[in-house]
Design goal:
Elements: H1 5-16, H2 23-29, H3 33-38, H4 48-69, H5 75-85, H6 88-97, H7 108-112, H8 119-137, H9 139-160, H10 166-178, E1 183-190, E2 197-204, E3 207-214, H11 217-232
Antiparallel strand pairs: 1-2, 2-3
Helix pairs in contact: 2-8, 4-5, 4-8, 4-9, 6-8, 8-9, 10-11
């Protein structure tokens, strides 16, 4: 890795945009049990206890974010979306984007078996990191950190619609019930290039229906289609 431990810890703090008051928490979060055992550290389990807490904190914060971002989603929809995000694959994906594997302290055996690339080690280290930030800086700091790290994944999962394609469903319904296809009209596009927000509404037969917002045009259209479907399906019709 080419850097001593202190330099690596500084580098990681810059990468996550958070400076620890208690740097020992960060070091513990990065300590795999294989390293702890080989080096006879005080806690031979390494970061496992922090990982346990981090799992709970991550679930809470993602739930909080989803509740705020998707106020119209029912409980079941929110639960499924959260499950698609908060799992070993999703967490490891975020850890890889941070290149967290570079900073994990591993024993020789794990190092030799490419432990830095293992999904379980990456996900567990990230959860431990979350717990360390929570201990060190409190809920608001860990909320902001998780929101930054998971924003892209949340957008990706929401855009996939949990395997639902609301635009297709709305088009099929609209053709059957209303004899035409919906149009999507752009209301506004705002924000810097790296954090744009799009807003569109659905127009059917000259009638304006629901508005959707998203981090890209496709996501905004899907959201507008979903909300319009909810409105239309509340009306009695043979196409339902």
């Amino acid at each position: 890795m080419g850097l001593n431990l202190d330099s690596r810890l500084e580098e990681l703090q810059s990468a996550i945009n958070y400076q620890f008051n208690n740097i020992a928490l960060l070091k513990l979060a990065l300590t795999h049990k294989s390293f702890a055992h080989e080096h006879h550290t005080a806690d031979r389990t390494g970061n496992e206890r922090l990982e346990f807490l981090g799992d709970a904190v991550l679930g809470l914060v993602i739930t909080h974010i989803l509740m705020e971002r998707f106020p119209d989603y029912a409980e079941g929809t929110l639960s499924k979306l959260r499950a698609d995000i908060v799992n070993k694959e999703g967490i490891a994906q975020v850890a890889r984007r941070l290149d967290l594997g570079r900073y994990v302290l591993l024993g020789r055996g794990e190092e030799g078996s490419k432990g830095r690339a293992k999904k379980s080690i990456l996900a567990n280290a990230y959860e431990a990191l979350i717990a360390a930030v929570y201990y060190d800086g409190g809920y608001q700091n860990v909320f902001q950190l998780i929101e930054r790290h998971f924003s892209q994944l949340i957008d990706e999962m929401q855009e996939k619609g949990l395997s639902r394609d609301y635009k297709t469903k709305l088009q099929e319904y609209s053709q059957c019930a209303l004899g035409t296809v919906p149009e999507y009209v752009m209301v506004r596009e705002e924000g810097p290039d790296h954090e744009k927000t799009f807003e569109v509404y659905v127009m059917i037969n000259g009638v304006r229906y629901e508005t959707g917002r998203g981090r890209n045009k496709k996501a905004a259209e899907q959201e507008a289609a979903r909300k319009t479907l909810n409105t239309l399906l509340g009306q009695e019709n043979y196409c339902i």
